[in-house]
Amino acid sequence: MPFSKLGLSDPLLRAIADAGYATPSPIQLQAIPAVLNGHDLLAAAQTGTGKTAGFALPLLHRLSQHSYGANRPVRVLILVPTRELAAQVGESVSKYGQHLHPKLKTEVVFGGVKINPQMMRLRGGVDVLVATPGRLLDLIGQNAVKLDKVESLVLDEADRMLDMGFIRDIRKIIALLPKKRQNLLFSATFSEDIRKLTTGLLVNPVKIEVAPRNTAAETVEQIAYLCNKANKAELLCHLIKTNAWQQVLVFTSTKHGANRLTEKLNKVDIKAAAIHGNKSQGARTSALAGFKAGEIRVLVATDVAARGIDIALLPHVVNYELPRAPADYVHRIGRTGRAGEEGQAVSLVSHDEVGGLKLIEKLIGNAIKRQQVEGFEAAAVAPPMPPEPPRAPRPSRNHAARKPAAATGKPGAATGNAKPKPRSYARTPV
Ligand code: AMP
Question: The whole model's pTM is what?
């Protein structure tokens, strides 16, 4: 079915044509009519399925049916887990709404950058607000934004928001919204926590489930190189150089590991940059831009930082370390071979990770090809690792920090509605 049959207005169809979308993706086919009709939505979908247009297009259509003139209150609120996803969703919403008249205003707010410019931008009112939960609460605490006219709420990548400890913030935000509203929830996975969140939030939701655009085996060639832990950096340099890989996204399990690997790559003239929660927003944005433009050959990322980043046609993804959760393997390699292009997902697997590799194979229901590279073969028994250089102490990852004082047994339990403290991303898990 073409986009023109879904009930979207002409200015939106023009924007779709500008974006070069020929036909709706499966999630768009199901989500657009449901959202246009005002239904709640429960969608199992991850990045790469076209979910952003799936909710943004019909919400823009509904918004443009009536205007609030100059005094524009937030009418669509989109909550997302990370700054990168916030920026990306904001860009998409602006792009899809570019031909609407009168114009709708979209703003994006997230933590890790100064709050004042965001307060200024919100002053004239906005129609669509894309926000990470912590910064939104800070802005509400500063009276910079009101949510009492919100007509539609979107929780994007809800599972990741819960993983990052945002549940309390989300509940606080929901409590500030009008009771009567439309709710859309997107999540790649459905844990018990997500189920709890959806109960009481969604009213008779339309349920949508779509397979990720690349399920693990389809367009992505997967290889596991068995090697010694101590040789991983050298092996990676060898693979990049001998195969002349030009654009490689590498996942490490820690921020510290990402920094160390980036240094090593740069030392051997492979231009690399790291992207993780301890990097400033400026550094992250310029690393991503440089990578997209082809100026940076290797982007080294942790899972949370990379989540939701949409890079068209990424040819190579490397698991420098296997992810702790097998499901993250599917998220990681889902970034290659976008839009039907072939991609390659390479994992460097040391002795201690062979068990993890087996769990991943069980999850994806396929065996992953094991190979060895001459000169970098895995020893029969794991050799001892050389001692690591000393490292700075890690920031606490104790999620209790976000729990109410009552739950932690600390004083101050009664002041549950205290003004939110400014947040830093030091608590962002790797
Ligand atoms: P998302 O899952 O929303 O992150 O979208 C993934 C990518 O698919 C983005 O680069 C979109 O621009 C692109 N996209 C979304 N809808 C379509 C479509 N109907 N046809 C082609 N590409 C699309």
Answer: 0.62
Q: Does 214 fall in a domain? A: no
What is the CB < 6 Å shell around ligand 1?
21, 24-25, 28, 47-53, 310
Give the pLDDT confidence of 346-371 residue by residue, as tens digits.
999 999 999 999 998 887 778 899 99
The whole domain housing 288 covers: 220-371
**Judgement on whether residues 205 and 235 belong to the same structural domain of the protein:** no
Ramachandran angles phi, psi of 76, nearest 5°: -125, 125
Query: Residue 294: which CATH number?
Result: 3.40.50.300
Residue closest by Cα to atom 15 of ligand 1: 50
The helix/strand/coil state of 330 is helix
* CA distance from start to end of the chain: 41
Cα separation, 305 vs 247, in Å, equals: 18
Which atom of ligand 1 is nearest to 22's Cα? 20
Under 8 Å between Cβ of 158 and 122: no
Other residues' Cβ atoms within 10 Å of the Cβ of residue 372: 13
* Nearest protein CA to atom 22 of ligand 1, as residue: 21
Distance, CA of 32 to CA of 30 (rounded, Å): 6
- 221 Cα–ligand 1 center, Å: 22
* Residue 76, beta-bridge partner list: 128, 152
DSSP string, 80-146: -SSHHHHHHHHHHHHHHTTT-SSPPPEEEE-SSS-SHHHHHHHHTB-SEEEE-HHHHHHHHHTTS--
| Pair 229, 145 in one domain | no
By most ligand atoms within 8 Å of CB, the mutation choice from 28, 46, 52 for ligand 1 is 52
3-state secondary structure of 226: strand
Task: Convert the pLDDT of each residue in 171-213 to its tens digit.
Answer: 999 999 999 999 999 998 777 888 889 998 999 999 998 765 4
CA distances from 80 to 9, 45, 133, 170 (A): 26, 14, 7, 10
